[in-house]
Amino acid sequence: MASVERDDRGIWGKAAIAIPAIVLCGIAAGWLSNSGVENDWYAKLIRPGIQPPSWLFGPIWAALYALMGLAVAVVWNEPPSRERANALRLFFAQLVLNYAWSPVFFGGHFIETALVLLIVILVLALATAKTFKNIRSMAGWLLLPYLLWLCLAVVLNYETGRLNPGADAAPLGLIGA
């Protein structure tokens, strides 16, 4: 079997575009939706006991977005193909939904809608990681911390709804009264 020769020279140039763009869009989504403990609605909620300290969320998301930017740069650097195009579509679909979560949860106060959104993001991110891994193993593995964080986010979102009956602006009836 012949080995495939890779040209990785373009990865860092693509990463220099992808990482800041993804991180800055994430910061903008959080800022525009007044996310975090500065949000009066959120500050009044009972938070789950397993929730990390508020000050950790910014650095964690910056690191996760940077890893996502590197992963997409690795895939973007591969030769054009149908599989690469599908992988990039999956990546950007889950990323757009990721950016929508803060406005839905913090801006709209839609706890259960945000939970459904997180589950959809997790499914798309899993599909993205699998597709990335098929294209370039490293790219798939770079998404593992994000996938783990999304699992925690689902639990935190659910528990926030459970601990705060009546706080959801438009309950869907998923968590309870």
Which class of secondary structure composition applies to the elements?
mainly alpha
Instruction: Look up the CATH topology.
Output: Ferritin
Give a count of the beta strands, DSSP E runs of length 2 or more: 0
Q: What are the segments in which pLDDT stays under 50 over at least 5 consecutive residues? A: none
The number of helical elements comes to 7
Specify the CATH class: Mainly Alpha
As a whole number of angstroms, the C-alpha radius of gyration is 18 Å
CATH architecture: Up-down Bundle
Please give the alpha-carbon distance between the first and last residues: 61 Å
Tell me the number of structural domains: 1
Shape estimate: elongated
Q: What is the residue-averaged pLDDT?
A: 94
The ordered string of helix (H) and strand (E) elements is HHHHHHH
The helical percent reads over 70%
CATH level-four homologous superfamily name: TspO/MBR protein
Largest sheet: none
In percent terms, what proportion of residues is strand?
under 5%
Architecture blueprint of SSEs:
Elements: H1 11-32, H2 40-43, H3 54-76, H4 82-107, H5 111-135, H6 137-142, H7 144-163
Helix pairs in contact: 1-3, 1-4, 4-5, 5-7
What does this structure look like?
Keywords: Membrane, Transmembrane, Transmembrane helix. The chain crosses the membrane at residues 12-33, 53-75, 110-129, 141-158. There is one protein chain. The model has no long low-confidence stretch (mean pLDDT 94). The protein has helices spanning 11-32, 40-43, 54-76, 82-107, 111-135, 137-142, 144-163. By secondary structure, it is mainly α. The chain is built from seven helices and no strands. The chain has one domain: Up-down Bundle (Ferritin).
